[in-house]
Known about the structure:
The chain is of the alpha+beta class. The protein has helices spanning 10-27, 29-37, 52-55, 59-68, 70-73, 79-93, 99-116, 118-125, 140-170, 176-217, 219-233, 257-263, 280-283, 291-296, 350-358, 465-495; strands at residues 237-239, 251-252, 255-256, 268-269, 299-305, 315-320, 323-327, 334-345, 367-373, 389-397, 402-409, 413-420, 425-429, 432-434, 437-439, 443-448, 451-459. The radius of gyration is 31 Å and the shape is globular.
Amino acid sequence: MFVLVRPGDLWRRLGRAALVGVGSLFVAAWVVVPLLVDRLWTVNDEFSRGTHYYDSFGAGEVMRWAVSGELFDRWRFPTLTILLAIGLLVALWRFRREPRARALLGVLLVSLLLFFGRPTIGPVLDLLPGSGDLFLRRYIFGVHLAGLYLIALGTIRALQVLQAIATWIWRRPLPVRLVQVAAVLAVVGALAPAWTERSRYAETGGRWIREQRTFDETDGADAAALVDLAEANGPGRMYAGARSNWGPTYEVGQVPMYSVLLSESVEGVGFTRPTWSLSSPVEYRFQDLNPAHYDLFAVRYTILPGSRTPPPGAVELARRGRHVLYEMPTDGFVEVVDVLPAIEAGRTNLGLRTAEWMRSPDVAEGRHPAIAWEGHEAAPPTEAEGSPGEVLDQHVELREGLATATVRMERSAAVLLKTSFDPRWRVEVDGEEAQPWMLAPSFLGVVVSAGTHEIRFVYEPYPRYDLLLLLGAASLAGIAFGPRLVRLRREGTSGGGSPLGPSV
């Protein structure tokens, strides 16, 4: 939009835009490059697709909010909306002669179209690369950004009109000091509803924080004590309800217990959104009355309110206040399993494609379908009669990206690490590189032959962030200082002196 606002200067502005655009991509390379390279292994949430989270609300709803004041003055007198309307009229009046007015209107229009989303401009969005991963409702930021400038423009014009009316009534020019004081008072008065509402909002937030601090020091301390007991008892994930079931009603103050576990930095199951792990859509289907699911997700501990019946097989370990800590029987983070014929799945339907299997007896029997992810090759089936083997010893440090196990295999089968699959996991069997496979529901596995073996799983993060950061820093410096240095050199050369001469 900033390129197009001066048609007569199109090519020069296009070149500058290209410089800034490419340079910005280099500056953000440390985020953008890994994101694009590993995009295939990220989740496109099945529960949000086709809803306003991805597709936004449509032109009708957005324009209704704009006219009613919801877009800029929700729950208060529409002062900002009125000033925005004045600024919009001023910008339209100046459109032909002022590039700044064209830029503001252009940014507002493009942002509005994107904020309208798929219900309004669906076919056009298909031309935008990566549009299927965009949360179009978030393009409200562009509407608000352009709106802030238009509100300022409208405020200035409104004050100018008021000054002209006052001058006409007074019949002579008003004193400058009086105009300044009146302008400040008018702005303060116009924005008083917004400031009052924000003050109430901050006061409410402060009250909630004080209340939550009290809960954290009492009820929350009991929950934290149980977490400490579980961690001292041995490794394993924890569960205290999920967003998809009764979990939101089990709270410490205003914080659901599954979020309390998150704040305690424990390995947990239940906080399924908005983390968007590859396992999020299958974790959502965790059934907390099914003991096989506790083993499937390596959930060794569960913290429940004393009034809630624990799952079958749970053993009470401790009570603190109204909270009870239970231990569930599991095989740990590493397990020997059989591989069933592959299920085809991808970024948008992993949870849907594995849902039937998660309800089946195969989960308890340790039989996991291979996952043919986005058309990739899948692990070969290993199902046969008899036990496939057992884990003799395991040591798992998922936060460090490391897991080791000693297994005794009765026949060819898979060793499963119960963590989200990622192509950057490396697997060694007896010191030799082996092929990692994705197994249902979303985990990492390796097929191993009969015998006793040492298995090593190592996660290798995206390499050479240092080079990408260095590229970004150099690009930022080039954008900031390069054009100026070139201009100074040209001026110095044309003046016959030092490039620094003209600036002095």
